[in-house]
Amino acid sequence: MTQAASPSDMTPTQRATLKAVADTVLPALPERGKDAFWQVAASDLSVHLALEQYLATQLPPQTRAGLLSLLDALALLSFAPQGQAVRESLLRTISGLSPEAAAGIGALRQLTLMFGYSLTDAQGKNPLWEGLKYAGFSSPPPTTPGGITPYTPQAGETLDADVVVVGSGAGGGVIAARLAQAGKRVVVLEAGGYSHEAHFKGQELAAYQTLYYRGGYHPTADGNVTLVAGRNLGGGTTVNWSNSVRPRDDIRRAWAGEHGLSDVADPSYDAHIDSVLERMKVGEACSDHNGPHQRLEEGAEKLGYHYVRAALNLDPERYDAEKAGHSGFGDQTGAKQGTLRTFLQDAYDAGARILVGTEAQRILVEGGRAAGVSAVCTVDGEARPITVRAPQVVVACGALETPALLLRSGIGGPAAGQYLRLHPAGLAAGIYAEDQKAWWGPAQAGILKEFASREGGHGYIVEGVQYGPGLIASGLPWHSGVAHRELMDKFHRMAVFVSIVQDRGHGQVTVDGQGQAVHTYAVTDPLDVENFHQGIATTIRLHEAAGAEEIVALVPGLAPWKRGDDLEAFIAATRQAPLGAGGQTVFSAHQMGSARMGRDPQTSVADPEGQLHDTPGVWIGDTSAFPTCSGVNPMVSCMALASRTAERLLHHMDGGAVPPVGQSLQSGQAAQ
């Protein structure tokens, strides 16, 4: 395998135990067959080295220390010398001791499976893929150059600007474009790197390592939720699944009436929504249906549920269905109209300076108001401290990092890091008679909306998922090494549906002793718990209605349903497992609300315009500003709100000289 590990401070005993854990989760099973699929173990794929590297480089110190202590405990039980059956028994026993132990074992198991099914050799292949009927992605990247040349600062350099925007995703990209097009001197700081079509290889693990936050799918500090977010120039819009949903009217009314964003419910706000939809070329022309989407539509029709094709931010002139299913690993075709190809390009063309590999350390505050940002830019391995002096600072690091920057800076008030919403998501897989070819076509081309406002405006939607062997392998329940491998042997016949809950409850973002973000979230709100269970039940019924031969729920110890079994009994069994650590796997690709807008400085970080209650000149420009969760895929909601925030910021800077939103964005489109 090509991904080598970097040295870490693990002890030899910890390394041996980690290798044994990996080989227990993903063992060689030569008695099952002579194909490579059955012959290899995790260590044959260098999974243990990838795990060591991940623990050394991607986890907060507290989380890493907990996993190393878990390895020490297993070593005291002489884990490594034991046979497969004893090792599996020990893992189950340790998991049952406490929620923390269950979370730790679960994290190591998920990471092992993620790496095992996504690590590749020099030819871009993995021997386990043979059993998946998956050839991998073989299209070489195009040689098309990128449209942006990032600015490279010198160590100790000070840049002067009118506005510094920290983050380049759905929110930061839009704000940078609007301000630069209005003639402001804009500096954009992005913690991730710059990758474009010429860099994208369509490979899962390589994408996680270069384009995603903390190396891809990773657990919250309490082990309850597996998070995924972008970390690259363009943020989540570079790697998301293109679903472009207009903000819900009921959510707009709630933000206006309950949180003070009065104009968000007015027809005038539609100009912000329409402008971003137009700039991203959103439409249904590319919403092709692969096997899983056909099954979802068939199940919905049979059950009488409301299902619609999704609108996607894909350019029909560049779209290629053969490659679209891998666009979450970077879109080689350039069809995806994320901020990298739209708003950031507009900002750059209008004169904005864009820095990548640049982590904001703290916001500078002088005389009680914003004065700029201190940051560290890494250039060819060299850490270069820099300062951006600017009287206006837009914080758009994403809801997982924006509150951490505020907390490191000592600003934001008591609500900073509170009210983290995650849209908790659960999966169910149906196994059908035919190959579903889930790698073909867009990851999300349809939405089941039947239960979107199930109770009091809170409910769930059902959608498709990105094709990724590592992602699905890590999510499927692990009962034993052989049982999981037998399940993956049917992977090519699987269709996976995801139910996404509009959460009423919330979690928290704090910082550890090193100032690193720490995320915690427990799905305990009674309505959220019920909606989660109802969502799983709906996905199961959809699979049964669509003709699945077997249905797999992500519940430890629960055997797959097989046609002829009692479906309602199977659904009832899924409700018995807790949600999160030690129970059902909960995912989140939508993080919101952790630096939210509102009237009350005690329960919100920013005022209804987007400016901090306690620090003038600091603005929140991403999904962390959402007063509540969006209830739908949040990209368009984020962009529209960011466009509004940019308008308010320009008003403060110019005393009311605000370019019409449609005019400024359309002019950028024409310039490209």
From TrEMBL:
<dbReference type="InterPro" id="IPR000172">
    <property type="entry name" value="GMC_OxRdtase_N"/>
</dbReference>
<dbReference type="Pfam" id="PF00732">
    <property type="entry name" value="GMC_oxred_N"/>
</dbReference>
<protein>
    <submittedName>
        <fullName>GMC family oxidoreductase</fullName>
    </submittedName>
</protein>
<dbReference type="GO" id="GO:0046577">
    <property type="term" value="F:long-chain-alcohol oxidase activity"/>
</dbReference>
<dbReference type="InterPro" id="IPR036188">
    <property type="entry name" value="FAD/NAD-bd_sf"/>
</dbReference>
<keyword id="KW-0614">Plasmid</keyword>
<keyword id="KW-0274">FAD</keyword>
<comment type="similarity">
    <text>Belongs to the GMC oxidoreductase family.</text>
</comment>
<dbReference type="GO" id="GO:0050660">
    <property type="term" value="F:flavin adenine dinucleotide binding"/>
</dbReference>
<dbReference type="Pfam" id="PF05199">
    <property type="entry name" value="GMC_oxred_C"/>
</dbReference>
<dbReference type="GO" id="GO:0016020">
    <property type="term" value="C:membrane"/>
</dbReference>
<feature type="domain" description="Glucose-methanol-choline oxidoreductase N-terminal">
    <location>
        <begin position="398"/>
        <end position="412"/>
    </location>
</feature>
<keyword id="KW-0285">Flavoprotein</keyword>
<dbReference type="InterPro" id="IPR007867">
    <property type="entry name" value="GMC_OxRtase_C"/>
</dbReference>
<dbReference type="InterPro" id="IPR051473">
    <property type="entry name" value="P2Ox-like"/>
</dbReference>
<keyword id="KW-0560">Oxidoreductase</keyword>
